[in-house]
Amino acid sequence: MEEQIHESTSHESCGTDGRKSHHSDKTKSNIISRLNRIEGQIRGVKGLIEKDTYCDDVLNQISSVQSALNGVGKLLLEHHMKSCVMDRIQEGDDEVIDELLKTINKLMK
What we know:
By secondary structure, the chain is mainly alpha-helical. The chain has a single domain (25-107), classed as Methane Monooxygenase Hydroxylase, Chain G, domain 1. Helix content is 69%, strand content 0%. The chain has helices at 25-50, 55-90, 95-107. This is CsoR family transcriptional regulator.
């Protein structure tokens, strides 16, 4: 259920000065829906712990939560690269590459 990013939005605040993102309403809605599902999954994991559920079952649910969070991260990273990063490179701001590499390294931990 990967969303294709084809937005023609102004990204003038993507730089380090503005530090704002520019998501379309569709993208924002998609991200919020995913986060709401993840929030429910986390409440479910908490419930499993409270019910003394077998550890392997809890760990499988935790894995599902991590996978869902990774999906949100990938979606945001794709949007960021196709909009903010590209705009800043076109403006001659090469520092964005180092910033992006730091972000990717954090995501890959």
